[in-house]
């Protein structure tokens, strides 16, 4: 969803895409919203550079974008845990450059929940990136970790970035291909 150009009224912390470098976008910056998926906002400046603005700062783009950036956590009945809840949370994590979630892109290789002796679940996830040199890797890993950790019943969330097997477009689901107009 591409938005209109907005001039921000205050400085805002952002992340440069694809390097992952932290930057400060100064008040007065002209930004166009490129996507509002997964709780974060991807914006583009007049020179074509992309930036990610975290959900907590989306209000700098206006109330409409702050509301769109909010991603409700899956509610589970107390005491019940289902692995599908983890997969649903993973579907709320988006590559900031591609408007498709990481599950449909085929970036999640394994997801396994194990009951802990003291109660709750340990969730282990192995995932990769579309390109090994992507600077957003640790950002996506932290997105996954925080969203899975927020689920009721999850006591530990371990996310490992792996490179074998190497990702390629054959790992994408038909849903992803349709979203990207490749089918």
Automatic annotation (TrEMBL):
Residues 83-159 form the MIP18 family-like domain. Gene3D superfamilies: Fe-S cluster assembly (FSCA). InterPro entries: Fe-S_Maturation_MIP18, FeS_assembly_SufT_put, FSCA_dom_sf, MIP18-like. Pfam families: FeS_assembly_P. Signal peptide: none annotated. PANTHER family: FE-S PROTEIN MATURATION AUXILIARY FACTOR YITW (PTHR42831). NCBIfam families: FeS_long_SufT. This is Putative Fe-S cluster assembly protein SufT.
